[in-house]
Amino acid sequence: MSSFPSIAMVSSYFSSTLEEPRISDPSAMEAAARVSGTVAVAACAAMAFFYVAILYSPTLILRLPPPASLDSFMIRRFACAAVSSAASVLACVLLLGLEKLDDLPSILGVLGIRRDHLWQAVAFPLLLTSFLYAGSFVSRSWKLISASIERSENSYGEDGICGQGCTDWVCAYARNVMAWRNYVVAPFTEELVFRACMIPLLLCGGFGTSSIIFFSPVFFSLAHINHFLELYYQQRYRFMKAFLIVGFQLGYTVIFGWYASFLFIRTGNLISPIVAHVFCNVMGLPLLSSPSTKGTATVATAAGVVGFLYLLFPATRPGLYNDLRDGCSCWHRYCSWS
């Protein structure tokens, strides 16, 4: 499947560092960008708005009765997210003219949905992201060791109890609708819309790679602003408290959006930002320090950040994820289908 046009080919000029496209004729990029920049930005804004607005359509537009339970409420939202994601994919395909391609794998390849180099697209970004959580790993390991020492005097039959406890934990999570939201539905639908659909549009709208990495997460962040309305109007939080909570969340989503966009462009595979998204949702915010570890977590955090920055470009080198290196000409053909 490596012969299909993909986002990795679209962004091969990002091969080892943030640099300008290696195209001999500077006008080639402008001529290739069949989608105008205005249309690309407008489409991205519409996708972000629709992703949020459709969540409220069952009660505001369809006039359905309020859901009777949290499970039914979340399942309704899962269906809405699926519809908005499908609509965004369709809009992206039509705007880029991908329907003119002769097979489905080629279309999916442009959106970063590929089978080639799959283990690299999962393992390397996951390992890279885990460096940011070195302090969290140390703190959690410290707690587990301390708890194990406390239970050491009553360890008879502990293996069976522990095994049963792990099984019960997995089963409980499988039945938890919020776990499905945080670890399945949100990562997959958000990355599909905000990375796989928006980034190709912006690339073919003539935007540079670095501009897209720092600009496109604005849409991702604004898609979370509805949380302020929910906190302020529905949960009756004070204005300043709701503002601070959502402001912090928006800042965090922008930073993660930079990283996810970087991963998507560098690897050319949608699974890379998805696994990073799931991992970050599982771990929460990185732990900077912990009094219980006597400074060990702080040292681990600093070392993890250094390791992350050192490996950021080598671990995401496009050559690790796609066999085709000369992506500029492929990008030109991709954006100039007619």
From TrEMBL:
UniProt enzyme class: hydrolase
Gene Ontology cellular component list: endoplasmic reticulum membrane
Keyword GTP-binding attached: no
Superkingdom classification of source: Eukaryota
Domain CAAX prenyl protease 2/Lysostaphin resistance protein A-like: 177-283
EC number: 3.4.26.1
The reaction(s) this protein catalyses: Hydrolyzes the peptide bond -P2-(S-farnesyl or geranylgeranyl)C-P1'-P2'-P3'-COOH where P1' and P2' are amino acids with aliphatic sidechains and P3' is any C-terminal residue
Pfam families: Rce1-like
Cell compartments where the protein resides: Endoplasmic reticulum membrane
Main subcellular localisation: endoplasmic reticulum
Protein name: intramembrane prenyl-peptidase Rce1
InterPro entries: Rce1, Rce1/LyrA-like_dom
Family indicated by similarity: Belongs to the peptidase U48 family.
GO terms assigned for molecular function: metalloendopeptidase activity
Record keywords: Endoplasmic reticulum, Hydrolase, Membrane, Protease, Transmembrane, Transmembrane helix
Residues spanning the membrane: 35-57, 78-98, 118-138, 201-222, 242-265, 270-289, 295-313
Topological category with respect to the lipid bilayer: Multi-pass membrane protein
Single GO BP term: CAAX-box protein processing
